[in-house]
Give the backbone structure.
Amino acid sequence: MELDEAISKRTSVRYFRDEPVSEETIWELTGVAIRAPTASGLENWPFVLFQSGEARRKVFDLIAEGMVEYYRAVDLPEEKIGKLRNRMYTEGMYRAPVYIAVFIDRRVRFLKGREFDEVEFIWSVESAAMAIENLMLKAVELGLGAVYIGVTNFRGIEEKVRGLAGLDENYYLVGLIPIGYPRWDVKPRKRRKGIEEVLRVL
Ligand SMILES: Cc1cc2nc3c(=O)[nH]c(=O)nc-3n(C[C@H](O)[C@H](O)[C@H](O)COP(=O)(O)O)c2cc1C
């Protein structure tokens, strides 16, 4: 598949078939993820695969908890939130055969001074996000779907995901990615802004 096709076909997939993703496929996805650039070449990113039924259930519950917090934060009426909760718990939105969590190890850094704390953290997050995009594009090529989950970064939830992964507070979750074979075709979403709106030429 050409890069252009993978980029234009990629879209967030939130419903998956009940079909396993092979270990070989996980290796392929991780292989392209670690080809991403990393600030100062640090590669300080553990990738944690949640595959067992129990681990997946716990991760799913945390995603659902985060999504409900998000819906409340955007002031959705409780009735609508109930419907969305139903989509998750009854219809299986976000239930995937595997979840990949991408963390950074905050201790691994190049610039040591306190004045670089923030920029080092941002660089690590940016690097991990680039790995995630590589992985998501490769997923398209392999006929898989994925969605970037950010709500698991909410306070109280991020540390629970870290706990499930067996990692301590030296680590930080950048993104949690449910991956699987799409339950149905999802059309790529249109962009609200055109190039002329976002590009400034000086
Ligand atoms: C950093 C980040 C966090 C996101 N968090 C969530 C999330 O918590 N739940 C979710 O359903 N989608 C999440 N998304 C997916 C976006 O909603 C989606 O990318 C956006 O609406 C554009 O749609 P598209 O990916 O289909 O092009 C996240 C995307 C990014 C990049």
Observations:
- The radius of gyration is 18 Å.
